[in-house]
Amino acid sequence: MANTARSGQRRAATLNDVARLAGVSIATASKAVNGRAEVAESTRQRVMAAATEIGFTPNALAQSLIAGRTGTVGLLTSDLEGRFVLPILMGAEDAFGSGQISVFLCDARGDRIRENYHLKALLNRRVDGIIVVGRSTDPRPSLGHDLPVPVVYAYAPSDDPTDRSLTPDNVVGGRLAVEHVLSFGRRRIAHITGDVGYAAALDRAEGFREGLAAAGVTPVAEPMFGSWTEGWGRDAAAMLLDRHPDIDGFVCGSDQIARGALETLRDYGRSVPEDVSVIGYDNWEVLAVNSRPELTSIDCTLQELGRRAAQRIFEAIDGGPLEGGTEYVAPKIVMRGSTVASR
């Protein structure tokens, strides 16, 4: 009869080995390993010590069947290549990794049919929960309330207020930006931002107005809405400087726009930050640190948003309530040379 075991290969420890070493039945060893309540604590400790001694690892699938969980979560996104989505996914994945949760990542590419396909696939895999990550902060359609697992919406909030959503607080971010510029004594401040059709542009402009009003300062002009591009930043800054040569501060709705404003200020012979303070938004590091000077920016703390979304899923999986409503995640300022002169 052929020997099926390779020479020198150690056999994996089994539950039977644990039971024999601990001096208990296989049924008792199974209950102890899987955390069942009907085992005395002293017996449980003896069984776990035996398992550790011989290197026994419980079967993850068997444990999940007992607990009614699979230890998996789905991350369903609409824009996997987007620079806003990736930090959120990284934050969520970090949180899930520390909790020993495996992640299934699906990219719907903005296609509702593809999204429905991925959703069905995740449910067929019996994931314990789903995080839906949008491509912008504009509300997105809800997946509904007929799903058998908890769902949390990240970045793009659900259009159903009874769903749980997490999104950056762009109003606070706009206010934080203008307060930072005001702190350097600037009083002739303008706001250049992106497409008026985006919630982010409207919210950041609202925060800008609130910050000026709280300081008793009148804006040089109404916020200028356009595109999220350097070209728009250049053109809008030129228009504003032609009409209001005494401008001493630009609060921009994105880092691309701020880069364009910096170029125009150089063309007009205005020194940054000595003559004019400039602040961007999003803290896109590849743009911010390669600007001349380096660009101060508002960071939306997207990794923190992803971690919090994962925490809400953890809480729901553990039986906690998943209350509806939108949770706003506060941004922070990353100060660089466009507002703070280097020494």
UniProtKB/TrEMBL annotation:
Domain HTH lacI-type per the UniProt entry, residue ranges: 13-67
Keyword Transcription regulation: yes
InterPro entries, per database record: HTH_LacI, LacI/GalR-like_sensor, Lambda_DNA-bd_dom_sf, Peripla_BP_I
Pfam families xref list: LacI (PF00356), Peripla_BP_3 (PF13377)
Molecular-function GO term, any one: DNA-binding transcription factor activity
Keyword DNA-binding: yes
Cross-referenced SMART domains: HTH_LACI
Keyword vocabulary terms for this entry: DNA-binding, Transcription, Transcription regulation
Tree of life domain: Bacteria
Protein name: LacI family transcriptional regulator
